[in-house]
């Protein structure tokens, strides 16, 4: 099975960086994208994208981003997008981490701390 990240069904996105944060009792996962396929030609607005799908051999995880930050180099040049979502339980966090580990292995990422 292919490991994929999709805002829109059938349109795979590429994660460039991952950050894990903690707010009180809530864990926050931040996925950073250098570009988004869903934004091209306003696909995200015409097809709707209120959720993010993380898919791997265990199945699908549907998450609902609670934050999207867009960073631009200049008026038209997108530098990166930060998509964040909260994880409320340890069980879901463990599942998301298994996905992220598989994604990292498949795409040559390394985990580290800052």
Short key terms for the protein model shown above:
four-stranded antiparallel sheet; 114 residues; Elongation Factor Tu (Ef-tu), domain 3; globular; alpha+beta; 2 helices
Describe the structure in brief.
The chain has helices spanning 43-47, 90-107; strands spanning 4-8, 11-13, 17-23, 26-33, 52-56, 59-63, 67-72, 78-87. The protein is α+β, with helices and mostly antiparallel strands and 114 residues long.
Describe this entry's structure for a reader.
This protein has helices spanning 43-47, 90-107; strands at 4-8, 11-13, 17-23, 26-33, 52-56, 59-63, 67-72, 78-87. By secondary structure, the chain is an alpha+beta fold. The chain has one domain: Photosystem II Psb28 (Elongation Factor Tu (Ef-tu), domain 3, Beta Barrel), CATH 2.40.30. Strands 2-1-5-6 form a four-stranded antiparallel β-sheet. The chain is globular. The N and C termini lie far apart (32 Å).
What oligomeric state do these chains adopt? single chain
CATH class: Mainly Beta
The span between the termini is 32 Å
What is the tally of helical segments? 2
Rounded Rg: 14 Å
Q: Do you know the CATH topology?
A: Elongation Factor Tu (Ef-tu), domain 3
Categorize the overall geometry.
Answer: globular
Quickly count the domains: 1
Average pLDDT works out at: 86
The profile of the biggest β sheet is: 4 strands, antiparallel
Q: State the helical fraction.
A: 10-25%
Write down the secondary-structure element order.
EEEEHEEEEH
